[in-house]
Design goal:
The chain is built from three helices and no strands. By secondary structure, the protein is mostly helical. α1 runs antiparallel to α2. The protein is rod-shaped.
Length: 134
């Protein structure tokens, strides 16, 4: 699988970290751990080196995840701004339509809305008193 298949930065970061962890820890377990087991009577420098590698890997993982999370948060904030703007626009439009509609039209519309029936998806144009559409 390629990183290009993922849609969000978070998915890409997780994919990259997964591959990094597999290669890093397989190399770590492949050679260094064996030398530590064989040389544990030495100064312990191998253990410190492994601890440092693990700490560096954890810092790298943390940095990748924090970057991905920040980027995802920015995308979500933008989507929220757009949705709030769209909602405000629709509320203004709804208020305008209610003020322009006659009491008869409002009553007719309310009679169409019953708890059993869904709201019509495309409202029809209100009729003027002369019978023509406004």
């Amino acid at each position: 699988m390629n990183a290009e298949m993922y849609q969000t930065p978070m998915e890409v970061a997780v994919y990259q970290l997964h591959n990094f962890n597999i290669s890093f820890f397989s190399s770590l377990l492949g050679g260094d751990v064996v030398s530590v087991k064989l040389d544990n009577s030495a100064s312990g420098a191998s253990v410190v080196a492994i601890d440092n590698k693990i700490e560096q890997a954890m810092d790298l993982v943390k940095n990748h995840l924090m970057y991905a999370v920040r980027e995802e948060v920015e995308v979500l904030k933008e989507q929220i701004r757009e949705l709030v703007e769209k909602n405000s626009q629709l509320e203004r439009e709804n208020t305008l339509l209610k003020t322009l509609a006659s009491p008869e039209q409002l009553e007719k519309f309310q009679s169409r809305l019953s708890p059993e029936e869904p709201v019509p998806e495309t409202p029809q144009a209100p009729e003027a008193p002369g019978g023509s559409a406004v």
